[in-house]
Amino acid sequence: MLRLMWTLPAVALVLLATAAPAAAHITVHSDDAVADGYAQIAFRVPTESDTAATTSLQVAFPADHRLASVAVRPHPGWTYQVTKSTVDPPLVTDDGVKVTEAVSQIDWTATGPDTAVKPGEYDEFLIEAGPLPKADRLEFKAVQTYSDGTVVRWIDSAAADAEHPAPVLAITPAAIAPAVAPAAEASAASPPWALGAATVAVLIAAVSVALAWRRTRRRAD
Questions:
Q1: pLDDT at 175
Q2: Spacing of C-alpha 185 from chain mean position
């Protein structure tokens, strides 16, 4: 019993030590990431260091799934720089416009120590992009720089045991039209008098059944 009492706290400390860094990874999120659609995408950046603040973030876009349209939301206290590269074959937007250059990287930099992401804090950097590819995921690579010069590269393949996994955005398949749509359209196409006639017919049938049952009951009595 004494050994067990000493062992359980030790195991708990080990689990906490291994779980804490996982919660501090750079991640990417979206509530409307649907294939062929446009989505607002947020890169969430926590500061792991106890003494230094995050001063810059670099995000590289996947080379195999370039996005034709990318707009950056201005972030107070930070500047950003967009890098583009040639895509071949060109991408085509919803308007039929051919895009020969697409965003390959975005760099965010804090304008000063007051706006850097301090220890124990996190921040989010937003973009709007699309059309999203017909894929189940997009893997971005990120580089995080601290005020003391430390550089952390979040570029490992997203695996359960990866020390610095790259942020991965999950994409939902395009929505499928509801199966009840034709029936709904048929109902909408029916004239109002047809619905009224059907209702009257049902009421007449109900009254007829009730009268027949009453006559049968009297004969039995």
A1: 67
A2: 32
Handedness of CA 50, 75, 70, 176 (dihedral sign): positive
Question: Domain coordinates of the chain in residue numbers?
Answer: 24-170, 181-220
DSSP β-bridge partners for residue 127: 41, 72
Torsional class of 18: left (φ above 0), alpha (ψ -120 to 50), beta (otherwise): alpha
C-alpha–C-alpha distance, residues 165 and 181, integer Å: 43
Strand order of the β-sheet with 54-60 is 78-92, 98-110, 54-60, 141-146, 151-154
Instruction: Confirm if 12 and 20 have CB atoms less than 8 A apart.
Output: no
Structure tokens at 148: 């003391």
Q: Give the CA dihedral 78, 116, 160, 105, nearest 10 degrees.
A: 20
Does domain 24-170 correspond to CATH entry 2.60.40.2230? Answer: yes
As a whole number of angstroms, the distance between CA 102 and CA 4 comes to 59
Give pLDDT tens digits for 102-133: 999 999 999 999 999 999 999 999 999 999 99
